[in-house]
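Example (one chain per record):
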Amino acid sequence: MRVFLIVGIIAILISTATAIPGIATFYTQYIPSVCYGNQSQGVMVAAASDTFWNGGAACGKYYNVRCTRDHNVTVKIVDHCPDCSSTINLSREAFAKIAKPMAGIVIDIDYHQ
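Predicted structure:
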């Protein structure tokens, strides 16, 4: 039992240590997407800015996004947002898991794959 607890604590520490600070915004039209065309990927999705788009290598990867208020959500990258001033552009539903959309469309976050 103690081994599992220690492994869990180490995993959390590594995850927190590798988190990258950024800014999140939200959008409301998810289809079509650069990665999947007209195929829906659900609503817990995001568009990657040039910061980590990497020529499309981000397509299909999952990221855990945490608001500075300690709320987090896991999203799948389905699109590219080359003109975004934010790091990641979350779906409105994903954004709502970590912040109130009415509070503003830009929030500080940490994220990691």
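Caption: The first strand starts at residue 20 and ends at 27.
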